[in-house]
Amino acid sequence: MKPLSETGRLVADSPTLAMGARLKKLKSEGKTVYDFTVGQPDFDTPEHIKQAAIEALKKGETGYTPAAGMPDLKKAIAAKFKKENGIDYSPDQIFVSNGAKHTLYHVFQMLAGPGDEVIIPAPYWVSYSEQVQMAGGTSVLVKAGSEQGFRVTAAQIEAAITNRTKALLVNSPSNPTGAVYTEQELRDICELAVSRGIYIVSDEIYEHFIYGGQKAVSPAAFGPAYKDAVITVNGVSKTYAMTGWRIGYAAGPVNVIRQAGFAQSNATGCPCSISQRAAQAAILGDQTCVANMVAEFDKRRIYMTERLNAMKVFSCDPPAGAFYCFPRCDALYGKRIGGVMVENSTALCEALLDKAGVGCVQGGPFGADECIRFSYATGMETIRKGMDAVEALVKGTA
Ligand code: PMP
Ligand code: GLU
Predict the structure, then answer these.
(1) Which end of the chain is more exposed for a tag (fewer CB within 10 A), N or C?
(2) Residues in the ligand 1 pocket, defined by CB under 6 Å
(3) Average of pLDDT values for 1-18?
């Protein structure tokens, strides 16, 4: 047979989901494992959100909706942007999709074709570069290591801009590092893009998960020129413990949003009607559930950071946001752990899984092979036992 398309040949499985699937399989086989792989809240979706979905079902809201989302949900999203982010969006500037991942996919499809470059600060969430590649574009990775708090500088971004740069990705708080940019840092970076007509894709999915008093910042609120340049991406998965419901959204310039909606009308028709009603209830409803979850994550964050640093072979500052610890672990490279020689983050993750039953994600695909990622969006009991297991394995290697 003839070869697959370029995407068909090059696309790789999501490393986060692949590791998550391995852990799930081990669990289903009855093995005791401590799962720090996939970043999804371990909480159940709050009751009032489930009730909204049940009502939608009972009312028979089971047909297709407009391709880019129900008008009521778009109105709720517009109100959220105004209240929480200080940005005025009309419904035609909003596009609802099947999760923020799918939203980003459509956005990159609209922005980045062959010959176009997208600047991605690294470490970065694994799917950005894969999505840019699927769109035919090229990712330009700009690395910020732990020594600079995992935050790129404006000078680094400036050096990466070429006449082929189409978009700049910003993700604050960041997956995998938890880094949160200050408003001034983001302004300095985004100004470089806006002044050159470069789009900014701002992934704000972790905006509510910020600890220690820093504030979330939306570049689209920086001024009218920014509103024309920024595509703000968000969703309900993390904020409301709704990962399985698959609702994400983007707001931005009408041409980008309209075209993304057209693409969706051909690709998937529309997001799930019931999930859209649930998302509407989540966004408009009581937000106490969010504060409660964030408070719980904060405790886990401090505990996990302390445990990792106490082992000496890992080092990380307490992450300022999201729900991941991303410690450096290269002090272990070149050493034997549980009888296995560890040379890189993949080998370390394999050793942790095989010898300690601990699942985490290797830093390589996030653009930082010197690190590994532990999600603390899991119960305290798992964190305690999992950290005990890691400690027992690495003891004596410091
Ligand atoms: N952006 C980032 C940075 C993420 O970590 C994730 C992971 N879920 C997403 C987007 C996508 O989220 P979802 O598709 O569940 O809305
Ligand atoms: N974003 C989460 C993570 O990084 C969920 C998995 C995924 O979509 O990549 O673990």
Answers:
(1) N
(2) 39, 99-101, 125, 171, 175, 203, 205, 235, 237, 243, 248
(3) 94
Report the DSSP beta bridge partners of residue 251: 94, 232
Residues β-bridged to residue 97: 248
Distance CA 349, CA 35 (A): 12
Instruction: Give me the pLDDT at residue 213, please.
Output: 86
> Which strands form 372-375's sheet, in the order they lie side by side?
324-325, 372-375, 361-362
Q: 39: Cβ below 6 Å to ligand 2? A: yes
Q: Are 379 and 337 in contact (CB under 8 A)?
A: no
Atom of ligand 1 nearest to the CA of 125: 3
Q: How far apart are the first and last CA of the chain?
A: 53
Q: Is 85 in the pocket of ligand 2 (CB under 6 A)?
A: no
Give me 164's structure tokens. Answer: 């082929």
Alpha-carbon torsion, ordered 157, 106, 79, 282, to 10 deg: -110
* pLDDT tens, residue by residue, 273-332: 999 999 999 999 999 999 999 999 999 999 999 999 999 999 999 999 999 999 999 999
* Spacing, Cα 127 to ligand 2 middle (Å): 8
Q: Provide the residue ranges of all domains of the chain, joining segments of one domain with +.
A: 6-44+289-394, 47-284
Cβ neighbours, 10 Å, residue 143: 14
| CA dihedral sign, ordered 183, 186, 192, 193 | negative
CB contact at 8 A, 341 and 358: no
Instruction: Answer whether CATH 3.90.1150.10 is correct for domain 6-44+289-394.
Output: yes
What is the fold of 47-284? Aspartate Aminotransferase; domain 2 (3.40.640)
